[in-house]
Amino acid sequence: MSTLRMNNLRKKMSAENLGGMIITHLDHVRYLVGFTGSAGLLVMNDKTADFFTDSRYTVQAKKQVKGAKVHTVSSGLIASLADFPKLNVKNRIYGIEHTYVTLTTKKQIAGMLPDCVLVEADSIMTDLGWVKEKEEIKYITKAVEIADTAYERILQLVRPGIRESELAAELEYQMSMLGSERPAFETICASGYRSAMPHGIASLKKIKKGDFITFDFGATVNGYVSDMTRTVVVGKATSRQKKVYDTVKRSQAAGCRKIKAGVKCSAIDLTCRKVIENAGFGKYFTHSTGHGIGFFIHTGPRLAETSKDKLMSNNIVTVEPGIYIEGWGGVRIEDDVLVTRSGGKIMNRSEKKLLEL
């Protein structure tokens, strides 16, 4: 798989007239060559690739790295570039991941490769991996299954008096016990008025009777992630809570039904948004409908009003509309959906009816 990924990157490099890429972001390094350690630098050109690490990872790199020659260095990963004159080709244009390197690091790279030209090339890496291979789908499916099962396990713990942070910790523990390498991102557990915060990271707030609780979380399997959201209510739901929840549920279902290869991503966002607007809550849907997932938690295609993307078979995207009413609470429901030529396959199996716990 790594060879295919690197060849895809080389095609993008060629299209951008780049002679090479210097890849420093460890998630991107892992995606391309399989290395999972904390010290790695990958330099690619149109035919070869060189991977640099330090002596802590000599054995690990030899076992994991595919498609690149492994170099164990002692002078620092970037400083070691000066010891490889074959990389310092006059006027070779190297793309760098501008978002992930500091100005100091950029200057250091330029100093090690003085005959080369460095240009920003973030978009090249961002565009990789939108269409999933069979093995990638298998890993994401497993990550979805882990998240679903962990969610079911923690529901019995929901009660007045427990803290958001306790529920989030238990959720992450259960995912770990089920085989997740790590949480896909910092777990969101937001209750009561805090559920109106789309990214309400778990706090020390205690759950109260009558609170909405929004859980947004994901598992990781072999580097591939899942991303799901469910909202429950503690005790009996009020009529207003039921109306808001039902609106989001209908919006999310409509968006999932719209998923199909060839469909404009903006059309899916519009479908979800119309349901919420027609129910009178349009101003409370404050973010886009979804995004691609895979080796990275946020990738393309984007399901947004302004998106120019179209869905392709074997994209995996989230569909996650929400309503957020400041000072009162909010609801979001999210599934991971596999795109096919005949429609969207919802990968999550967790219940989406309003649970009154």
* Beta strand %: 15-25%
Q: What is the CATH homologous superfamily assignment of the largest domain?
A: Creatinase/methionine aminopeptidase superfamily
CATH topology assignment of the largest domain: Creatine Amidinohydrolase
The N- to C-terminal Cα distance equals 45 Å
Show unreliable segments: none
Mean pLDDT across residues? 95
The percent of residues in helical segments reads: 25-40%
Question: What is the H/E order?
Answer: HEHEEHEEHEHHHEEEEEHHEEEEEEE
Main sheet, how many strands, which sense, barrel?
A: 6 strands, mixed
* Spatial strand arrangement across the major sheet: 4-3-2-1-5-6
Tell the overall outline.
elongated
- Tell how many strands the DSSP assignment holds: 18
**Helix count, DSSP H or I runs of 4 or more residues:** 9
CATH class of the largest domain: Alpha Beta
CATH architecture of the largest domain: Alpha-Beta Complex
How many structural units, i.e. domains? 2
Tell me the radius of gyration.
Answer: 23 Å
Give a written overview of the molecule.
- The chain is of the alpha+beta class and 357 residues long.
- The protein has helices spanning 2-15, 26-33, 58-64, 103-112, 122-126, 134-154, 164-177, 239-258, 265-278; strands at 20-23, 41-45, 49-53, 69-72, 93-96, 117-120, 188-191, 212-217, 220-221, 224-225, 228-233, 290-292, 299-303, 316-319, 322-325, 329-332, 335-340, 343-346.
- A six-stranded mixed sheet has the order 4-3-2-1-5-6.
- A hairpin with a 2-residue loop joins strand 9 and strand 10.
- The model has no long low-confidence stretch (mean pLDDT 95).
